């Protein structure tokens, strides 16, 4: 699966080293409906990943349940931060998922004090990421400057 790739500043495409895994679907016998992949190559801003995802038929991960968050937290690197498909596009405080899922109907997993929208750079903090906390394995949401570079998690429909 080439669902996760990033373009460098020179416009050449570098395929990341990534781990691919299937997201479990609770209560269904037909198997997983989505496949996720995590990159292990830093240097991708949220905007770069978003532009490339259209070409590749994938998008940044949308977390639909606590089970998914716990599963993802177990399979990704504990000390790393990862972009997910949570963005603040039109107005401050109005978060949306990149796939159009209703943000208000999904469980919220913001870390304590988040989102805080520090006025970093010109744009503030308008992109969501998973980040670690002291003494916990579960990743929680944090808002970050979209121009920063982190690993990322993409998803696509399973075959």
UniProtKB/TrEMBL annotation:
Source species, domain of life: Eukaryota
Bias-annotated ranges (Polar residues): 30-48
C-type lectin domain segment(s): 57-155
Keywords: Disulfide bond
Pfam families membership: Lectin_C
UniProt-listed SUPFAM superfamilies: C-type lectin-like (SSF56436)
Region (Disordered): 29-49
Keyword Disulfide bond applies: yes
PROSITE patterns associated with the record: C_TYPE_LECTIN_1, C_TYPE_LECTIN_2
Identification of the protein by name: C-type lectin domain-containing protein
Species this chain originates from: Hucho hucho
């Amino acid at each position: 699966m080439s669902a996760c790739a990033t373009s460098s500043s020179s416009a050449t495409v570098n395929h990341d080293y990534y781990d691919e895994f299937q997201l479990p679907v609770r209560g269904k016998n037909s198997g997983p409906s989505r496949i996720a992949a995590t990159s292990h190559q830093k240097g991708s801003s949220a905007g770069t990943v978003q532009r490339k995802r259209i070409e590749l038929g994938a998008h940044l991960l949308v977390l639909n349940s606590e089970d998914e968050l716990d599963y993802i937290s177990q399979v990704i690197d504990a000390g790393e931060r990862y972009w997910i498909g949570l963005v603040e596009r039109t107005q401050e405080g109005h978060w949306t998922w990149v796939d159009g899922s209703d943000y208000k109907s999904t469980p919220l997993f913001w870390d304590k004090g988040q989102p805080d929208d520090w006025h970093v750079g010109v744009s503030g903090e308008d992109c969501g990421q998973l980040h670690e906390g002291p003494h916990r394995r579960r990743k929680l949401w944090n808002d970050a400057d979209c121009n920063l570079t982190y690993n990322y998690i993409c998803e696509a429909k399973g075959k």
